[in-house]
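Researcher: Let's do a round of design. I'm pasting the structure tokens now; please hold your answer until I've finished.
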């Protein structure tokens, strides 16, 4: 703490003058000792002065015996994946108790480069929450991706020294790390004294060790406790993810409870969570609540949502209720249900009903879908071999399986018996690239669903049971310059425009939420499995860094630790 700041605050800490604000009659969750302390919390200028029953304040708030804990921290998320304006997402999640967000804007960067990163920084600058940013490390995610921009180490220099940049974002190209690619290590060198986030699903033991050896500090891709344990044993901080598509809390937390291992190297994150899911079940508070339901000690759960993450990212002023920490609080009624009563940011109560001010988006970021009109014949898929590799979509997961099926040879595969067509259409440079494959598990009948949100290159991803509706869906996405659409029997049923980089909307989230709800219901009515979020799950089917099969504009791609590559 700076000398001037200390002199300003010390008088109130020592009790010589009244604090600005004192919370009385509260049960303080102490993340250092793992105990509940019945006392008072004094605050001045957004900073915690101390904890003592003797404090008096110019303003005093009686919590009536409610619990007060540090504001929750989301260890890793992509604001773009929520589809709404970044400021609106932050405000919505903050009202649920999340007061700090560690954001990776690589979705925006893959579409619009540095302009996309600056958009996220600018849109969240005045939020009633701490919004930090990790510098996107893999733009594009791999050298076979067709995205909008490229960010090399030299392009990162303008962001170095920005106090809101905490380190290097998720390193998805694990091959580049393990094989010692100089371009990747040039990026590592820029952030060697900060946190480097990982993205390492299913790396074998020695490769995982090499990944950590290179300097990777965290990972949020563990979908099983066994893998999370291997990561933690190597000193990799595990962010336990619970989003709208990937649900990893149950498996990992059950393992933590069963083994009783130390949880200091575990945190919570959402990664990708739609706003309607946040409104229904909460944000990081849901992870905490679910973990406790599964048998995890409440103090461990709260530490995973607060101090563990703060330490991971060097946020010395966040994550605890103690002198010198920022006065970010979540107040709840009990240590089981965690019903959020109020939330405070820098000592000020968050108004859950306040209108969120959204800054105007630069016009260049609203014209990013660049394709020529497609037709049904563009999605023809010849079957020439005796066996065909099919993308097996896994319930409640973003991983896929490689199904080998026997189809009759034909000039154009016709979807049948649950087998559908899935395609990726390059949309940044109008290259005309279209990759088509077969998938199973999604379940749509009599139509198609398309989206311009397609991790991480964000080309147009489309799935359907007939070529005509697939083409209609792609052309509709181009018409609205990005978004989601549902097509049924030759007609567009409904479209949710996402004109900001083809990723986000510029209208109020309630309008988005209502339209998305209708579209989801229609998707399920058309046969989409309830085990999938119709849009979020689809958005991961082109992500070439997660096993096992993906579709790209260049064709079907296998992701494997035994060797990745295109399947002919």
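Researcher: That's everything. Go ahead.
Model: Designed sequence:
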């Amino acid at each position: 703490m700076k000398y001037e700041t200390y002199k300003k605050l010390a008088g109130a800490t020592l009790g010589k003058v009244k604090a600005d604000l004192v919370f009385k009659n509260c049960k303080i969750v102490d993340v250092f000792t793992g105990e509940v302390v019945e006392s008072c919390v004094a605050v001045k200028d957004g900073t915690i002065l101390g904890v003592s029953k003797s404090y008096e304040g110019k303003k005093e708030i009686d919590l009536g015996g409610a619990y007060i804990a540090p504001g929750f921290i989301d260890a890793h998320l992509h604001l773009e994946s929520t589809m709404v304006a970044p400021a609106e997402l932050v405000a919505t999640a903050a009202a649920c108790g999340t007061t700090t967000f560690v954001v990776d804007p690589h979705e925006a960067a893959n579409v619009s480069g540095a302009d996309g990163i600056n958009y996220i920084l600018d849109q969240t600058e005045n939020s009633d929450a701490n919004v930090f940013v990790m510098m996107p490390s893999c733009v594009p995610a791999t050298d076979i991706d067709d995205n909008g921009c490229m960010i090399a180490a030299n392009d990162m220099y303008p962001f170095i020294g920005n106090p809101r940049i905490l380190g290097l974002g998720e390193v998805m190209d694990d091959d580049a790390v393990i094989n010692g690619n100089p371009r990747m290590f040039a990026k590592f060198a820029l952030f060697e004294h900060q946190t480097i986030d990982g993205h390492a699903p299913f790396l074998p033991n020695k490769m995982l060790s090499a990944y950590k050896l290179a300097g990777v500090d965290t990972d949020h891709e563990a979908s099983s406790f066994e893998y999370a344990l291997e990561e933690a044993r190597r000193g990799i901080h595990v962010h336990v993810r619970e989003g709208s598509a990937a649900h990893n809390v149950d498996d990992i937390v059950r393992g933590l409870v069963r083994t009783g291992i130390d949880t200091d190297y575990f945190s919570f994150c959402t990664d990708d969570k739609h706003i309607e899911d946040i409104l229904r079940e909460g944000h990081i508070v849901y992870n905490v609540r679910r973990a406790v339901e599964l048998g995890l000690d409440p103090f461990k759960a709260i530490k995973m949502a607060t101090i563990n993450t703060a330490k991971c990212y060097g946020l010395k002023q966040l994550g605890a209720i103690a002198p010198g920490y920022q006065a970010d609080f979540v107040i709840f009624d009990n240590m089981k249900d965690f019903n959020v009563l109020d939330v405070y940011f820098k000592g000020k109560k968050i108004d859950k009903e306040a209108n969120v001010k959204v800054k105007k988006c630069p016009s260049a970021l609203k014209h990013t879908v660049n394709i020529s009109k497609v037709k049904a014949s563009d999605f023809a898929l010849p079957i020439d071999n005796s066996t065909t590799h099919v993308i097996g979509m896994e319930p409640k997961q973003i991983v896929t399986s490689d199904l080998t099926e026997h189809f009759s040879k034909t000039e154009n595969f016709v979807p049948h018996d649950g087998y559908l067509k899935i395609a990726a259409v390059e949309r940044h440079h109008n290259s005309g690239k279209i990759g088509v494959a077969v998938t199973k598990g999604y379940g749509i009948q009599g139509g198609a669903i398309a989206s311009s949100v397609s991790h991480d290159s964000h080309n147009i991803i489309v799935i359907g049971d007939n070529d005509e509706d697939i083409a209609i869906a792609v052309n509709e996405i181009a018409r609205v310059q990005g978004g989601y659409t549902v097509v049924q029997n030759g007609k567009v049923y409904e479209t949710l425009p996402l004109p900001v980089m083809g990723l986000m909307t510029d209208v109020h989230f309630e309008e988005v939420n209502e339209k998305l709800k209708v579209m989801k219901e229609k998707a399920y009515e058309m046969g989409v499995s309830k085990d999938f979020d119709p849009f979020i799950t689809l958005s991961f089917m082109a992500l070439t860094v997660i096993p096992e099969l993906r579709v790209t504009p260049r064709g079907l791609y296998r992701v494997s630790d035994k060797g990745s590559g295109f399947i002919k």
